[in-house]
């Protein structure tokens, strides 16, 4: 690679994204985040199988779009890495992927209650969410997505949207960069919490309309704050 420092910066952001989403309660011990390789669009970067809160730069591995590791070096791999490869294959515009078990999102994945935007910071949800049931692609290991066939079916359910719900499991969130994907994963969870409370009122809801939806203009400020928070926690 002609500019190793550029790759180092991407890896650093990927590690930070893991830590931010773990600290914010979006990722548990099993979720994962990836980025498309900055110099090779047919590859992506993802941690070895490790809890997101513990991911370090040395854990980051390179994969092709079939989710084969380029150099495993004996390291364990996430069973559900196929989510990432097939999403990048289907969506050339996507450069970052988050798969989480976002707690407040799960009820929306198992009911016919749509997860719609009520919060301006979750305006990307105004486009709606895809819905995926792994049974439609064939079960392998319970509700886990462990094959390219299943990953491709999930990518089709996502379509051109930013979020797809996975029945009884979690969700898939994408963005054009790691900062945007991190923001969307976090605010999908926050919007789900707020919508659940709003629904409990039993009153008509004024959802965000598509013409009201705008992504945040100062996302770099939010990223700086989130990054500082995880760095403070990691200091001795």
**By CATH's scheme, which homologous superfamily applies?**
Class II aldolase/adducin N-terminal domain
Number of domains: 1
In CATH, what is the class? Alpha Beta
- CATH topology (level 3) name: L-fuculose-1-phosphate Aldolase
> Mean pLDDT, rounded to whole units?
94
Side-by-side strand order of the widest sheet? 3-2-1-4-7-6-5
- Helix segment count? 6
Order of helices and strands: HEEEHEHEHEEHH
- Helices and strands: which structural class? alpha+beta
* Envelope shape: globular
Q: Helical amount among residues, as a percent range?
A: 25-40%
Low-confidence stretches: none
Short description:
The chain has 236 residues and is α+β, with helices and mostly antiparallel strands. It is built from 6 helices and 7 strands, in the order H-E-E-E-H-E-H-E-H-E-E-H-H.
């Amino acid at each position: 690679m002609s500019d190793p420092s550029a790759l180092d910066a991407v890896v650093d952001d990927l590690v930070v994204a893991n830590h931010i989403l773990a600290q914010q309660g979006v990722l548990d011990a099993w979720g994962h985040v990836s980025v498309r390789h900055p110099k090779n669009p047919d590859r992506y970067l993802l941690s070895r199988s490790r809890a997101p809160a513990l991911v370090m730069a040395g854990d980051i591995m390179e994969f092709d779009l079939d989710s084969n590791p380029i150099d495993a070096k004996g390291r364990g791999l996430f069973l559900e890495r196929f989510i990432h490869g097939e999403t990048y294959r289907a969506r050339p515009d996507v450069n970052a992927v988050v798969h989480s078990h976002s707690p407040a999102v799960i009820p929306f994945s198992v009911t016919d209650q749509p997860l719609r935007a009520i919060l301006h910071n979750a305006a990307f949800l105004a486009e709606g969410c895809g819905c995926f049931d792994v049974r439609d692609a064939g079960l392998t290991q319970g509700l886990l997505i462990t094959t390219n066939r299943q990953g491709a079916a999930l990518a089709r359910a996502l379509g051109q949207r930013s979020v797809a719900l996975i029945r009884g499991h979690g969700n898939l969130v994408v963005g054009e960069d790691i900062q945007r994907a991190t923001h969307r994963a976090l605010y999908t969870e926050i919007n789900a919490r707020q919508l659940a409370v709003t629904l409990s009122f039993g009153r008509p809801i004024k959802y965000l309309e598509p013409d009201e939806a705008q992504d945040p203009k100062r996302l770099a400020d939010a990223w700086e704050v989130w990054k500082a928070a995880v760095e403070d926690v990691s200091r001795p």
